[in-house]
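Researcher: I'm preparing a figure for a lab meeting and need a structural model of a single chain. I don't have an experimental structure, so a prediction will have to do for now. The sequence is pasted below. Please return the structure as tokens so I can convert it later.
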Amino acid sequence: MSLRIAVLASPTPEAEAARAALAAGLAPCAPAQAEVLVALGGDGFMLQTLHRHAPLGVPVYGMKLGTVGFLMNQHRPDGLRERIAAANPTVLRPLEMVATTEGGQTITSLAYNEVSMLRQTRQAAHLRIAVNGRRKLDELVCDGALVATPAGSTAYNYSAHGPILPLGSEVIALTPIAAFRPRRWRGALLRSDAEVGVEVLDALKRPVSATADSHEVRNVVEVRIRESRTHTVTLLFDPEHDLAERILDEQFEG
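Model: Understood. Here is the structure written out token by token.
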């Protein structure tokens, strides 16, 4: 029996046209019946696909039809079944964010790229940071801070001058965003099983939001972040477009 494929597209004319073209030759099925999901779009749409369909437990093969496509393969409509059969799997384990708001609500969300905490007003955020329950920074005065996975380390984390992390390194990056005090603190590399605790100081005067990929929670007072113990996703990459190799190449670009 042939591979059951579901084709998903971002809401752009280019991606929708590509989905229609693939559907004509594939006879795609619904995601719930699929053995592979094909996502057409950019990295933002790939993250949406993972958040929406990860519970299905099927691998995702992306093709770039967007602005940024680090998590995507090149768009070539011909020979899709053969490309999927020859693709290399990469297993990603997301971060789990548990955010407590000023109103006492607790919200849990997953992040495949990063969890970021950002000031909501013109005033700098004052954050207290602990790792595995032990206080490490009494007060970080900054625009914010983030915790990034290896797959997400080349995104927001890298633009905030955080390190690029190789896939499989079992390390996460804790990176400050525009730190004012301590001025010379550039962040930390932590074991992937570490739990990062962030307490917002003076939260009423200096409110902070927490965002797991694109899921924002406003007016947080405490955020706990750790690698998920129970969730994984599998992405498929063409052999010549391997994600680990691309992350390595990023470290040698000017």
